[in-house]
From TrEMBL:
Keywords assigned: Membrane, Transmembrane, Transmembrane helix
Lineage, top ranks: Bacteria, Pseudomonadati, Bacteroidota, Flavobacteriia, Flavobacteriales
Name of the molecule in the record: DUF819 family protein
Superkingdom of this protein's organism: Bacteria
Spans traversing the lipid bilayer: 6-25, 37-60, 66-87, 99-124, 169-192, 231-249, 269-291, 303-321, 333-353, 360-381, 393-414
Organism, scientific name: Flagellimonas olearia
Entry-linked PANTHER family: DUF819 DOMAIN-CONTAINING PROTEIN (PTHR34289:SF8), PROTEIN, PUTATIVE (DUF819)-RELATED (PTHR34289)
Length: 420
């Protein structure tokens, strides 16, 4: 046991694949305990929780692991390309305005939730939301607002803008990871109850079903036995596309930073547009959409979206490994702020979804496009159906755009709330 925790990426990746293999094998069993189990718990949630358990028990140490980096920078853009090969832009446009309304509702929930959470916690634990100068807790919470509306680039921008004491920053990162991942687990759990939830919302999901049906029909028409040349060509499209997306993303982000002060200056609202990751995702998606207008879209029949789905599940496993369940109660005051905050976000989404009769898909993806960003919104969208991945991508990219401005407003409101 003196070898634990495992730190070598080769071993860690093997254990992640072991988790994925276990989940997919047991979920394929059509009788007995596992059939009942997976009728309640979605497979994607198990692919997320098992690596989290490995990390929480100290079996693996992901602190120096590159598995998440590889999955998010290589496999995610490859998955986006493969899963948008057969995209139908007209059908996505026909989904209507509810997707955008739910996304903006999620953003409003984060902006409002932060200051309200501070006010509530200050009633029974004023020291938790206190601090002065650069140690003020609201400054640290501003970084979470940046992460939960946009992503890592927006989070870094808020840290730069409000100059929170970096010695205490780890606690804020913990809230971000723990609460956001718990909420993602709840959303994934809800996917198994989509029909019941939509019935309660009285939602009209005909446009979503129409898109899924259209893609499924097209896939059936072009389905063929996959050959080695098919696999090599899909490898070519995916990873040549990844290389191009990284190249263009890095240079375009550099161009923007070099030529525009509002992007170069981390204290400016539009500074998050200098994120290389953001533009890599944008260009990877654009490449996939571009290929959908060529004969390359026929590779959907050879399993393009299935390979993309495999890459997404590897990403899910690496995300789960970042979650240490044992640290959930380590700082109960700050965790309480995070849980109240995300509850307000969730409550507002549920209220608006009920009022406008929006499908659960729009709630889940609209929320995750805020809280999870480009790395996990496509994961949640793809769990509904591979054809819906692009909806998650488009909304999460929009999150990057509004993230810093929304987080800045939230931070100002939290400052007021902390001084009440």
């Amino acid at each position: 046991m003196d070898q634990l925790p495992f730190t070598e990426d080769t071993v860690i990746f093997g254990l992640l694949c072991l988790c994925l293999g276990f989940v997919f094998y047991t979920s394929s069993l059509n009788t007995g305990f596992w059939k009942k189990f997976y009728s309640i718990v979605p497979t994607v949630l198990m692919c997320y929780l098992l690596p989290a358990i490995l990390a929480s028990l100290g079996i693996v140490d992901e602190s120096s692991s590159q598995t998440y980096y590889i999955a998010s920078r290589y496999l995610l853009p490859a998955a986006l390309i493969l899963m948008t090969l057969s995209i139908d832009l007209k059908a996505i446009a026909n989904l209507g305005s509810k997707a955008l309304i739910m996304f903006l509702t999620g953003t409003a929930g984060i902006i409002i939730g932060g200051p309200v959470a501070i006010l509530i916690v200050s009633i029974f634990s004023p020291e938790t939301v206190g601090g002065s100068g650069f140690d003020a807790v609201w400054r640290g919470l501003a970084t979470i607002a940046g992460s939960w509306i946009g992503g890592g680039a927006n989070q870094a921008a808020m840290l730069e803008v409000f100059q929170y004491n970096q010695e205490n920053y780890g606690g804020m990162v913990l809230i971000d990871i723990v609460v956001a991942n718990l909420w993602m687990a709840v959303l994934l759990l809800g996917i198994g109850k989509t029909k019941q939830i939509d019935r309660w919302f009285k939602a009209d999901n005909s446009s979503i079903e129409e898109l899924k049906e259209k893609v499924s029909t097209y896939t059936e028409k072009i389905t063929r036995v996959t050959s080695l040349p098919d696999l090599i060509m899909m490898l070519f499209y995916a990873f040549a596309g990844v290389g191009i997306a990284h190249f263009l993303g890095n240079h375009f982000a550099g161009f923007l930073e070099d030529n525009f002060e509002v992007i170069r200056n981390k204290q400016k609202i539009l500074s998050s547009l200098g994120s290389q990751f953001l533009w890599m995702v944008v260009f990877a998606t654009a490449i996939g959409i571009g290929l959908s207008f060529t004969k390359a879209k026929n590779y959907e029949g050879a399993g393009a979206s299935k390979i993309g789905g495999m890459f997404i599940y590897i990403l899910v496993a690496t995300i789960g490994m970042k979650m240490d369940l044992g640290k959930v109660l380590e700082n109960p005051g700050l965790i309480a702020i995070g849980l109240i905050w995300i509850t307000i976000h969730a409550g507002l989404l549920i209220l608006v979804a009920k009022l406008i009769k929006a499908p659960y898909f729009f709630l889940a993806v609209g929320s995750q496009a805020n809280v999870g960003g480009a790395a996990s919104a496509p994961v949640v969208a793809a769990e509904f159906h591979p054809s819906l991945t692009s909806v998650g991508i488009l909304l999460s990219v929009f999150g990057y755009v509004v993230g810093t401005a929304g987080a800045y407003l939230c931070a100002l409101l939290m400052e007021v709330a902390a001084k009440v």
